[in-house]
C-alpha cells in the first residue's frame, strides 16, 4: 500500500481512510461504507450472513466501516466474530511500511477521551482531527489481523508518528488460508487496557481492512457476526504485552512533511 498525500504526512493509508469521510463511495452491503485508498483499485463488496461483509479483488485494497452503537465496556466484555480467508497475500511483515499487505484485519474504534489520553496522544489526535474532514474520528483503535505465516506478536504501535500514538495492532491468527470459517473471541476490555494502559473508552465503530495491492494478490475475505459478549467465567485468553511508549511526534512545517516515524 503506497502512501500519498496526507498519508505521507504520518498517516498510514489504511487508517487514514477510516478518518477521511470524503473518500466514501457507497453503503454496500447496508450499514457498511466502503473507502478506496489513494486511487488504488477497490474490491467488490457483498453481504455475508445477516450483518457481515465479503471483500473480493485482485491487486486491490479496501476498507469497509460500520458504525457500532456507542457503549462503555464493562469489565469482562469480550468481542466475538467469525471470519474466513479463501485467498490472500503471502506472508509479509505487517508492521513494516511498504511491506504491509495482509489478508484481513478487524479494526475496533473507540471514542477519544482527553482524560484517558497521554499528552502525546492528545497532540497526535489533534493533528489527525486537523487533517481529517471527519467531525468525530476515533481516538483509539485496536487492530486484529490474520496474516498467514506472519510472526505473532503482542500489541505494537504503527510505524507512523501520529497514528502510532492512537493505533495498536497485533497479529491474532497466522493459520494458512482456505480452511473455512474461524470463530474468534478476544477480551476487548482487557486488550484495550493492555494496549493503552488505561480503561477502555466507549466503542464507536468496527472496520474490515483487506489489502493485497503491493503483491498484486487475489483477496477473498469475509467477516460476520461481530458481537459484544460477556467473557466466559475462567476463560483464559493469551495475554499480550502493552506497546512501548512512543515519542511525541513533531508537526510538519507549512507545506512540509511530518517526519516518518468464499463460498459458503
Helix-strand blueprint:
Blueprint: H1 13-19, E1 33-36, E2 44-48, E3 52-58, E4 61-71, E5 77-87, E6 102-110, H2 119-131, E7 140-146, E8 156-157, H3 163-166, E9 167-173, E10 182-186, H4 188-196, E11 203-211, E12 218-230
Parallel strand pairs: 7-9
Antiparallel strand pairs: 1-4, 2-3, 3-12, 4-11, 5-10, 5-12, 6-7, 6-11, 8-9
Would you identify the CATH architecture? Answer: Sandwich
Which spans of ≥5 residues are poorly predicted at pLDDT below 50? 1-12, 236-264
Total domain count:
1
The number of helical elements comes to 4
Helical content band = 10-25%
- What's the main sheet like? 7 strands, mixed
The top-level CATH class is: Mainly Beta
Coarse shape: globular
State the assembly state of the protein chains: single chain
Report the count of strand segments.
12
Q: Strands across the major sheet, in which order?
A: 1-4-11-6-7-9-8
Series of H and E elements: HEEEEEEHEEHEEHEE
Percent of sequence in beta strands: 25-35%
Radius of gyration: 17 Å
Mean pLDDT across all amino acids: 75
N- to C-terminal distance: 29 Å
Structural class: mainly beta
At CATH level 3, the topology is Jelly Rolls
Amino acid at each position: 500500500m503506497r502512501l500519498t498525500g496526507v498519508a505521507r504526512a504520518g498517516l498510514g493509508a489504511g487508517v487514514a481512510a477510516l478518518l477521511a469521510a470524503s473518500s466514501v463511495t457507497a453503503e454496500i452491503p447496508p450499514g457498511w461504507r466502503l473507502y478506496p485508498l489513494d486511487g488504488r483499485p477497490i474490491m467488490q463488496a457483498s453481504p455475508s450472513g445477516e450483518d457481515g461483509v465479503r471483500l473480493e479483488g485482485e491487486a486491490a485494497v479496501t476498507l469497509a466501516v460500520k458504525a457500532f452503537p456507542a457503549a462503555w465496556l464493562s469489565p469482562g466484555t469480550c468481542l466475538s466474530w467469525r471470519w474466513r480467508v479463501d485467498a490472500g497475500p503471502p506472508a509479509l511483515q505487517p508492521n513494516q511500511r511498504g511491506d504491509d499487505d495482509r489478508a484481513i484485519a478487524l479494526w475496533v474504534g473507540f471514542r477519544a477521551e482527553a482524560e484517558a489520553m497521554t499528552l502525546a496522544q492528545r497532540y497526535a489526535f489533534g493533528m489527525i482531527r486537523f487533517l481529517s474532514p471527519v467531525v468525530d474520528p476515533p481516538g483509539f483503535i485496536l487492530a486484529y489481523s490474520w496474516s498467514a505465516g506472519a510472526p505473532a506478536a503482542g500489541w505494537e504501535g504503527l510505524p507512523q508518528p501520529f497514528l502510532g500514538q492512537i493505533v495498536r495492532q497485533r497479529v491474532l491468527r497466522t493459520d494458512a488460508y482456505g480452511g473455512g470459517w474461524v470463530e474468534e473471541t478476544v477480551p476487548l476490555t482487557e486488550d484495550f487496557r493492555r494496549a493503552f494502559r488505561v480503561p477502555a473508552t466507549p466503542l464507536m465503530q468496527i472496520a474490515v481492512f483487506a489489502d493485497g495491492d503491493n503483491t498484486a494478490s487475489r483477496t477473498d475475505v469475509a467477516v460476520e457476526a461481530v458481537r459484544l459478549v460477556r467473557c466466559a467465567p475462567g476463560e483464559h485468553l493469551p495475554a499480550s504485552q502493552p506497546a512501548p511508549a512512543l515519542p511525541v511526534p513533531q508537526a510538519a512545517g507549512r507545506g512540509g512533511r511530518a517526519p516518518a516515524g468464499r463460498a459458503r
